[in-house]
Amino acid sequence: MNISNTQNLPGKKGIAIVTGASAGLGAVYADRLAGRGYDLILVARRADRLEAMSQRLRTKHGIEVKILVANLTERKDLERIITEISANPNITLLVNNAGNATLAPAPSLNDEQIDAMHKLNVDALVGLSQVALRKFLERDSGTIINVGSVLSFQTIGLSAVYSGTKGYVLNFTRGLQIAAEGTNVKVQLVLPASTATELWDLSGVPLANLNQSSVMTAEHCVDAALAGLDQGEAVTLPSVENKQLWDAFEAARTNLFAATQTGKPASRYAVESA
Ligand SMILES: NC(=O)c1ccc[n+]([C@@H]2O[C@H](COP(=O)([O-])OP(=O)(O)OC[C@H]3O[C@@H](n4cnc5c(N)ncnc54)[C@H](OP(=O)(O)O)[C@@H]3O)[C@@H](O)[C@H]2O)c1
Fold first, then answer.
1. pLDDT, tens digit, 9 for 90 and up, residues 31-90
2. How many C-beta atoms surround the C-beta of residue 85 within 10 A?
3. Which of 17, 19, 25, 190 to mutate to test the pocket of ligand 1 (most atoms within 8 A of CB)?
4. Residue 29 maps to which CATH number?
């Protein structure tokens, strides 16, 4: 069966494209979306892992799987994925999950490490979001899931650059949601806390060093995020019990912004005239 002709078959939901599908949260997204009846396009650098996953998912879920081996920090590879989303009308869901982290104080990061975080966490996510949103708006249908982090709204000493990139994901994705208002296109922002994946050992902070009671499994994280999507949440914080904390955070941002619109210096900055 040709993967580009599957959307209209009974029980088929179209194609979900998942970046960073070879490990961690992306691998669980691939499995869960396959279980929901999506055909898949899996994107990552490690072809062997993607191949093994695709075999498993085809057998387990009876779906079609296509592999696109790509290094999303390379512009030409990113362009290939952008073209795929632009050209394939059966893509109905994009999971912008691929991300990397080097966790260290900002002055000790080298240019290459900073560049890798910017290119993957920001540039690739923006490029793929833009093309998907344009196509989905044309069809008035489709879903984008952007994976940020609780470090989208918090910075710790080791996360200046990573938090910078994830803060971008938060603000950018809120903007996409505004662009999609009044349409049938959904844009979900997912903000996971510490999750047991390879990201930690790659980041320079071993997973074993974390307070284990603060660490969620990747399966729990993705299942909660998809439950949030089903509930129509714009922003999903898988580990946060009290959902009103997010509402209070948004209200504080909005109030602070409103308070900036005065056109004059605050009285505490008044300069005495000579
Ligand atoms: N784990 C956490 O505690 C945590 C918490 C909050 C948010 N997040 C976010 O969740 C997302 C998934 O992270 P994870 O924890 O699942 O990480 P992970 O286990 O390290 O997986 C990262 C995935 O991204 C792919 N990837 C990395 N660099 C790539 C590149 N240059 N081009 C293409 N694909 C690339 C990796 O595959 P290849 O190596 O095969 O390319 C892998 O499939 C990220 O956006 C991360 O920032 C994670």
1. 999 999 999 999 999 999 999 999 999 999 999 999 999 999 999 999 999 999 999 999
2. 21
3. 25
4. 3.40.50.720
